[in-house]
Amino acid sequence: MPFQPDDIDIAIIESLIKDGRKSFRQISREIKISTPTVQARYERLVNVGLIKSVSPIIDFGMLENKTEKRLENIKVKSTKKHDVKITKDMILKMTCDLCEGPIYDKPHVLKIANFERFFCCTSCRTLYKEKYKGRIESLSD
Description:
Layout: H1 7-18, H2 24-31, H3 35-47, E1 63-65, E2 90-92, E3 94-95, E4 102-103, E5 108-112, E6 115-119, H4 122-131, H5 133-140
Helix pairs in contact: 1-2, 1-3, 2-3
């Protein structure tokens, strides 16, 4: 008998399509079923061959070559071959999580539970902590 995905299977797949880095717990909260059910369904989808892999989608526009200063008009030929080779000479263009301005130097990092937020200066980091104090405290408990 062929496998036919149901609404739960489809919801799990759609959630992973949006962000393949989500944990089973995050997916379970999103689609309102238990974490063990999400895990079991995911494993079944892998075992039947519907999910082959969860692969990263790389935004090459965020990469900048130190020597060339900027990579322009990067086009991806396919998911396996790219026009650009990622090297150690490249840097990642980052934006501040508060003011959304560019981060030119080493970012100021705020670690909250499993998450990291990046800021251009200590002022932005402090303002972010004040603005989201309640949420940060609830995640820290």
